[in-house]
UniProtKB/TrEMBL annotation:
<dbReference type="InterPro" id="IPR022644">
    <property type="entry name" value="De-COase2_N"/>
</dbReference>
<protein>
    <recommendedName>
        <fullName>Orn/DAP/Arg decarboxylase 2 N-terminal domain-containing protein</fullName>
    </recommendedName>
</protein>
<dbReference type="InterPro" id="IPR009006">
    <property type="entry name" value="Ala_racemase/Decarboxylase_C"/>
</dbReference>
<dbReference type="InterPro" id="IPR029066">
    <property type="entry name" value="PLP-binding_barrel"/>
</dbReference>
<dbReference type="Pfam" id="PF02784">
    <property type="entry name" value="Orn_Arg_deC_N"/>
</dbReference>
<keyword id="KW-0663">Pyridoxal phosphate</keyword>
<feature type="domain" description="Orn/DAP/Arg decarboxylase 2 N-terminal">
    <location>
        <begin position="59"/>
        <end position="272"/>
    </location>
</feature>
<dbReference type="InterPro" id="IPR000183">
    <property type="entry name" value="Orn/DAP/Arg_de-COase"/>
</dbReference>
Length: 389
């Protein structure tokens, strides 16, 4: 077990009221089922806020498509990042306080549907998107004035596939011809950029953070009327690698250095994976075994585990580490591995129920349709009470 997973497991087990559910209730949960612990989700969110201390905390809707999760999160956050008609619908019915529309496929239809309010904002990813926005403004006289944000690539290279900086597929490269053209076009149309938005994949070490800080200091100097910087998501690796205090200190000085250039800047973060992943636990049953060792479980249509492999929750399953097994299922991903390097003292028997975590982020939003399996049911626990979806 690497350090990141060890830390995550311990955190999960320490805080989870899920594991305090009586055996009778655990036995009665059918499989496959995903169980969210909303108390744990709230604790997680507050912990991230207390460490990074952003001015605004947004939820990227793409990290989870459960209406109940968003009804809950809308009450505890400042807004939602949305990328499509469906995500706008979900965020609107959850009553998020504000929407940030950020999408590589902006269309007039999306703009009409979003019907952005003054408290909302919209990213421009390209000159083409700036033209779409301007023609929307021109033909819809009565629209409000959402604030305009530029989605920028961070102009450094990185060899790490998780941290793409200027290798990002999306956004405008600062000071490129496209950047200058967008600025000119916006100026001609009396539109001010109030925010810049970056998303660099994973902030996977402090040296990446200091490169980004230098870049943002420069932008803040060049665009004196800037009001907000949205740092995107991708904080998961950091929380696995460094202590809370190290992360707190790093972000404290990161923000202070930018504030020295412009003290009015407000910071937004929108971590999806880190906020949600450990709030969900997957209950599955062993449906077969391979060579009397590895097991196959009844995961269903939603399962996409290539980003974070869920681990067996040992204290729930009462299985201690000893023999290494692999857990397989129809993941709809190469090799069908749900979890590997799982250490058990007793190989689960066919029919036995086991619990896997984390399963709270990018699971139900990236479900797959192979075999036409049903989407897995979900239930929610909040302060010890169980709610069905
Ligand atoms: C713009 C933006 N913000 C936030 C996120 C969430 O990232 P994560 O779930 O890794 O924190 C993403 C993910 O792709 C994104 O593209």
């Amino acid at each position: 077990m690497d350090n990141r997973n060890k830390k995550m497991d311990l955190e999960y087990l320490r805080k989870s009221s899920f594991i305090q559910l009586e055996d009778e209730i655990l036995d009665s949960i059918p499989t496959p089922y995903i169980i969210y612990n909303l108390s744990h989700l709230l604790g997680n969110l507050n912990q991230i806020i207390s460490i990074i201390e952003p001015d605004f905390f947004y939820i990227p809707i793409k990290a989870n498509y459960s209406q109940k999760i968003h009804d809950f999160l809308a009450k505890h956050t400042d807004g939602a990042d949305v990328a499509s008609l469906g995500e706008i619908d979900l965020a609107t019915s959850a009553k998020y306080k504000s929407l940030h529309l950020s999408t590589p496929f902006l269309t007039i239809d999306i703009l009409k549907k979003a019907n952005l309010r003054e408290c909302d904002s919209i990213d421009l990813y390209s000159l083409h998107q700036a033209n779409i926005l301007i023609s929307y403004f021109a033909t819809n006289k009565k629209i409000n004035n959402p604030s305009i944000s530029l989605r920028l690539k961070v102009p450094y290279t990185s060899n790490n596939s998780e941290t793409y900086l200027n290798n990002s597929r999306f956004g405008i490269l600062y000071k490129s011809k496209e950047f200058d053209d967008v600025i000119l076009l916006l100026k001609k149309n009396n539109i001010k950029i109030e925010c810049i938005h970056i998303h660099i994949g994973e902030y996977n070490n402090f040296s990446v953070i200091s490169q980004i800080q230098k870049f943002l200091e420069k932008i803040t100097l060049d665009i004196p009327y800037l009001k907000r910087i949205n740092l995107g998501g991708g904080f998961t690796s950091l929380f696995g690698k460094y202590t809370d205090n190290e992360i707190r200190d790093t972000f404290h000085s990161f923000k202070n250095n930018i504030l020295k250039v412009n003290s009015a800047i407000k910071f937004i973060i929108e971590p999806g994976m880190l906020t949600l992943m450990s709030s969900g636990t997957l209950a599955v049953s062993c449906i077969d075994s391979i060579n009397s060792k590895d097991i196959i479980v009844d995961i269903s249509a939603f399962n996409f585990f290539s980003w974070v492999k869920p681990r067996l929750l040992p204290s729930i399953s009462a299985i201690n580490e000893n023999t290494e097994i692999t857990i397989y299922g129809t993941t709809c991903y190469e090799e069908d591995i749900v979890s590997e390097k799982v250490y058990v003292s007793k190989i689960p028997k066919i029919g036995e129920k086991i619990f896997l975590a984390p399963a709270g982020a990018y699971i139900n939003s990236i479900n797959r349709n192979l075999h036409m399996f049903h989407i897995t049911n979900e239930l929610y626990i909040f302060e010890g009470v169980i709610y069905e979806s």
